[in-house]
Amino acid sequence: MGSRLIPAAALVFCVAGHAAAAQQPVDAVHSLLSATQAVTVFDHVTATGSGSVITLTGKVTSKAKRDQLETEVATVPGVRQVVNRISVLPGSASDDALRHRVARAIYGHTSFRQYAAMTHPPIRVLVERGRVTLAGGVRTAVERLVAISLAEDAAGSKVADQLRVSAA
């Protein structure tokens, strides 16, 4: 009876090990995206994966960033194909000014100083043709509401909310 359990345990170990290996490329890509200097507070990029195929989605402020992220992700061990669905936000002086105004309003507020000190602050300010979207994450529902309120005051209009609340 003991000899039957060993092969079954070995099979479970192999299947679990295979599942972990299948997740490894997307986990490595998540780490890369959270560490790369290409992504700023004005960009938001996410990655999903199925085996060795990674799909990038989101919005960035330049085509050069879009291309750089695709190149960086392609170098991650285990990644065989990158599907790049990142869109480039249109450039304009008014959008740039609005981006900076909203970011200053949020990260200059006492509630978000701990985020402002981070290398990669978690609240992303996306501006497209004068429309502001907040993406990324915060720790509490109250932080989410405060960030939206600050952004709406700075923008002078409604803000699209794509913030997620996740315990840190």
Unreliable segments of 5+ consecutive residues: 1-23
The overall strand count is: 6
Sketch the topology as an H/E string, one letter per element: HEEHEHHEEHE
The residue-averaged pLDDT reads: 87
Radius of gyration: 20 Å
* Spatial separation of the terminal alpha carbons: 46 Å
Number of helices: 5
Strand order within the widest beta sheet? 1-2-3
Shape: globular
Strand content: 25-35%
Please outline the major beta sheet: 3 strands, mixed
Class derived from helix and strand content? alpha/beta
List the helices and strands and how they pair.
Blueprint: H1 2-35, E1 44-50, E2 53-60, H2 63-74, E3 81-88, H3 93-107, H4 113-116, E4 123-128, E5 131-138, H5 141-155, E6 159-165
Parallel strand pairs: 2-3, 5-6
Antiparallel strand pairs: 1-2, 4-5
Structure characterization notes:
Helix 2 links the parallel strand 2 and strand 3. The strands form two sheets. A three-stranded mixed sheet has the order 1-2-3, with helices on one face. Strands 4-5-6 form a three-stranded mixed sheet. The radius of gyration is 20 Å and the shape is globular. It starts with a helix and ends with a strand. 48% of the residues lie in helices and 26% in strands. The N terminus is likely disordered. Helix 3 crosses helix 5. It is α/β, with parallel strands linked by helices.
